[in-house]
Amino acid sequence: MYQQLADRVGVFGGGVNVGIIQAADNHAILVDTGANESNARKLLRHVREEVGLNVIAILTTHAHADHFGGHEFVARRTGAEVYASPIEATILKNPELQPSLLFGGAAPPAALKERFILARPSPVHCVIDAGVVHFANVAVEVVPLPGHSPNQVGYLIDGVFFCGDVVFPSAAIEKFRIPYLFDLDRHLASMELAARTPASWIVPGHGTVERDITSLLEHNLAVVHETRETILKRLEEPAPLETIACGVFDAMDVPMESHVSYYLLRSTIAAYLASLEARGAVEHLMLNRQACWKRRQVEIGRIS
Fold first, then answer.
1. pLDDT above 80 for 304
2. Which CATH number fits domain 234-295: 2.60.40, 1.10.1060, 1.10.10, 3.40.50?
3. Most distant CA atoms of the chain, gap in Å
4. DSSP secondary-structure letter at 46?
5. Is the pLDDT score of 44 beyond 80?
6. Are 120 and 162 in contact (CB under 8 A)?
7. Percent of the chain topping pLDDT 90
8. Is the Cα dihedral 13, 119, 144, 245 positive or negative?
9. 88 contacts 148 by C-beta, under 8 angstroms
10. Hey, what long-range contacts does 299-303 have (CB within 8 A, 24 or more apart)?
11. What pTM was estimated for this model as a whole?
């Protein structure tokens, strides 16, 4: 479950990959904490008893519950300071914003209050952005990677690149078909940046640690192409978001086992539509008291 990647850097694997960075005086800096208190307890036990370190800081890649669900517990038990980028920091402190965003900005129903979506509020002690964060003898580079979430960041230390959810493992793509996105165009730019970031090890938020993520990026990009083309094929006639989303789910055989899956991926289809509109490929119009989308007869080329 634990893998040492560099002299001072390792990863605690599981549902979410958590980085463990060793600093001076037997201190540790974590990158994310996992989905919940149960995971955080196992993580903290490993750091304290097997590695022999005391946690002083938590670096947040992004404010999705599976990545920061353990923040509150770890911070409370250790006194660790929590670091996060500006928008993600707001969601950490106010986690109800995430299900509200998925529910169109309204107070969410019970189905969107489960722990996979709604984590405990986390304190935030330091708001960070692109640049370098210093901890005694450790310097961690903050790499902006927005798209999967509004203000996602990665962290680069000693040749190890914690890249959050800028890529998803192939197994997850095969199972769920369409990865969740907040902003498609910014996500594509972040994928390009991740590909150019020099690192000996790349640690995605989920899946295995990699030496090279080229093939993984290509698989993720292929899904973007497939999803975009599937959407466009359903826009010869005007249609509202719900109709488009359900048509895409059927065409791509997307498993839809819960309300959470539905709202996550409906929001993702909306992100694709916003991207297509920005590229001039679709228009957003009102018809019969409904907001609808329709394809424009233009060639927009292939996403790269």
1. no
2. 1.10.10
3. 67
4. I
5. yes
6. no
7. 95
8. positive
9. no
10. 300/276, 302/225, 303/188, 303/221, 303/224, 303/225, 303/228
11. 0.96
